Amino acid sequence: MLLKDHVCLMAQFNHWMNKKIFDACESLSAEQLAENKGAFFGSILGTLNHLVIGDTIWLQRFALAFSAHKALDPVTQIPRPEALNAIAFEQLAELKTRRELLDQVFLSLAKSVTDADLEQAMTYKNTKGETSTKLFFSLLMHVFNHQTHHRGQVTTLLSQLGVDVGVTDLVAIIPSA
């Protein structure tokens, strides 16, 4: 499998799962979404905001490093998030709109990158200002893994509220050989 093919699969999985999560969340009240349940980012809404903020930061880093990829242009217009735990969107509908925009950027990027792009080193600064250099492919896999990690927390919180997200396994969208 080419690296690009794996990135495409992960972008598709990311989009599929985010749609499932947001569809499930639409059955909850604003109070249920915002209630602090003791998760890393407190509530369902806090966790979903964290994912949008984290993805925005990473996509903006990618846009700086790989400006030739026009798929990343939409994130250059978004203000840089100030904190990983900020509530950028208090309303689920607004958060869903931003989530969809970011997922479309991931899908477009996945289609436009080449294996040569993915094998390039990328230098960036983390939120503390520390500089690191890592392979672009590995950084993309980190972002998708980060999504999976926190979506798992959200599915647990949803389950505790009696909401079943359904199948969440990557294998459900892997094409048959």
Features:
177 residues; mainly alpha; 7 helices; 2 strands; globular
Category from helices, strands and their pairing? mainly alpha
Distance between the termini: 12 Å
Biggest sheet, open or closed, and with what strands and sense?
Answer: 2 strands, antiparallel
Got a strand count?
2
> Strand order across the biggest sheet?
1-2
Tell me the layout of helices and strands.
Layout: H1 3-25, H2 30-34, H3 44-65, H4 73-76, H5 92-112, H6 115-118, E1 121-125, E2 131-135, H7 136-160
Antiparallel strand pairs: 1-2
Helix pairs in contact: 1-5, 1-7, 3-5, 3-7
Could you characterize what this model shows?
This protein is mainly alpha-helical. The chain is built from seven helices and two strands. Strands 1-2 form a two-stranded antiparallel sheet. Strand 1 and strand 2 form a beta hairpin. Helix 3 packs parallel to helix 5. It is globular, with a radius of gyration of 16 Å. It starts with a helix and ends in a 17-residue tail after the last helix.
